[in-house]
Each structure stands twice: as C-alpha cells, then as structure tokens.
Write a structure and sequence with these properties.
Blueprint (H helix, E strand, L loop, with lengths): L1 H10 L3 H12 L5 H18 L2 H11 L7 H4 L8 E5 L3 E5 L4 E4 L1 H17 L3 E4 L10 H13 L5 E3 L5 H13 L5 E7 L3 H10 L3 E7 L17 H23 L8
Length: 259
C-alpha cells in the first residue's frame, strides 16, 4: 500500500501540478512553448483546485443521493436489517488521546450513524482495514468511538478492507451469513454512488444515508472565488472519487453468485 500512496500523492494535486510547474520552469529554454503551456496549466490548475466554488460545482455532479429526512429515521426497521458505516480515515499520534482516533470525516459518519442507530435500534457494522498494515483496524477504532463517544454498541467489525469494493465484499461475507441483505449505508454524500454501486454488486438492497454534503451553497464572500487551502483538499478528494467511480465501473463486476 505504501507505493500506491506515494504514486497517488505525486500524481494528484497539489503535487502533480507543482511537479508540472517545476518541469515547465526547468524546460523553459529548451522548449519554451511547451514550458509556457505547462506553466499556464499548472497555475490555472492550482487556482481552480483551491476554489470553494469548484468544490460546490464538482460535488453537485457526484452527490446524486438525497439525504434521509429525520422522519425516516424511526421507520428504517421497516426497510432494512442493519446499518453499515464505512471508514473515513484516522488520526495518528495525537498525545491528547494517547492512541489513534477516527478522522474528522470518519467522525462525521459515525455521529450520523449513531443518531440513526438510536432512532431505529438497528444493529451496526463498521467497515475499515489497517493503516499501512498496522493495527488497530479502522473498524476497531470506529467501534471504540461509537461506544465511548455515542453510547452505541457495534455488533460486527469488518477490519480487513482497503478499498470501497472490499468494504462491500467483506461486509457481505459477515452480513449475508446472518441472512441480512437490506442495509442502511452511511458514508459521505460524494462517496455514496460508488459505495452503493459496490454493495449492490454483492446483492444488497440499499437505503442510502449520505452525510457531509459539499454541493450546498458555499456561503463564502465573492461566492467562493477566493482560494482556500481547505478547498484544495476537498477538490482533490472529489477528483479521486470521480476517477474511482469511473475505474470501478470498468474493472469490477458482480460476483457470479449475484448475477
């Protein structure tokens, strides 16, 4: 997983655009026209990737699943048998906690899942693997947080997955052994279409429970045309998701048992 991380970080913004900028400057005397084009693309790319308005626009094309209404929470047991929460990263080496904790994005998912679990009394599965092969699993960290921070007990831990596809594949082995095929799926709104598609390939009926919408009006001065460091991270995340969704449809398909 380390080499995949390195390649991804070098290819994606801001590193990929910064490398293009460096190469353009280095090649300005030998290939001035090519260097000028690369320089313009790098500067324009860095600017666009740092804009909240870009976040809003990009997210609007990924966030296709509607949010649940609060009135729907208590009716979930009529349509589903379990809640599945997908991991969203972790924070490491924070001395305040003396251990690993869910990332802010993961906490967003956990908080929402906890509300749904308390309103519906549905059992919860958390899904997330190891960090560069090192324990504890993300699932264990999530389960600990659900118990300690929200008073929700996790019934099942899926702690081996490294990708969204594996979230679905390994969760299916746990839940379908219990006869469960109807689930409430909790993840970020921009991640929901790929997540839903992955779980549907393994025969699940899905109630989408997206959280953390980015396509809402950004509410910034000048309508979000001033660069922000947070927007750079969000746009990179959305770019990764768009590429991932495209690749999933090309390289993954339903298991033979579900066709």
């Amino acid at each position: 997983m380390t080499w995949r991380y390195i390649i991804k970080q070098l290819a994606f913004p801001p590193s990929g655009l910064l490398l293009l900028l460096i190469f353009s400057v280095a090649l300005r005397k030998r290939w001035p026209k090519t260097a000028a084009t690369g320089f313009f693309i790098a500067i324009a790319g860095l600017y666009l990737m740092s804009l909240p308005i870009t976040v809003e626009y990009a997210a609007s094309h990924l966030e296709t699943e509607a949010a649940l209404s609060i009135e729907q929470w208590s009716t979930l047991p009529q349509h589903a048998e379990a809640i599945v929460v997908l991991g969203g990263g972790r924070e490491t080496n924070d001395p305040a906690w003396q251990g690993e904790q869910p990332s802010l994005m993961a906490m967003q998912r956990l908080r929402y899942a906890a509300r749904l679990a308390k309103a519906s009394n549905l059992p919860v599965l958390v899904s997330g693997g190891l960090h560069f092969g090192q324990p504890p699993s993300e699932a264990q960290i999530m389960a600990d947080s659900l118990a300690q921070d929200f008073g929700v007990t996790t019934r099942w831990l899926e702690g081996n997955s490294r990708t969204t596809w594996e979230n679905a594949e390994f969760s299916a082995k746990i839940l379908q052994a219990q006869g469960i095929k109807r689930i409430v799926l909790v993840t970020n709104a921009w991640h929901m279409p790929r997540s839903r598609w992955s779980f549907e390939q393994f025969g699940f009926e899905i109630i989408s429970a997206p959280v953390g919408f980015l396509s809402r009006a950004n509410g910034r001065p000048l309508n979000g045309w001033l660069p922000e460091s947070k927007a750079m991270w969000q746009n990179t995340t959305l770019l990764n998701e768009a590429i991932g969704a495209t690749l999933y449809s090309l390289f993954y398909s339903a298991p033979e048992s579900n066709k």
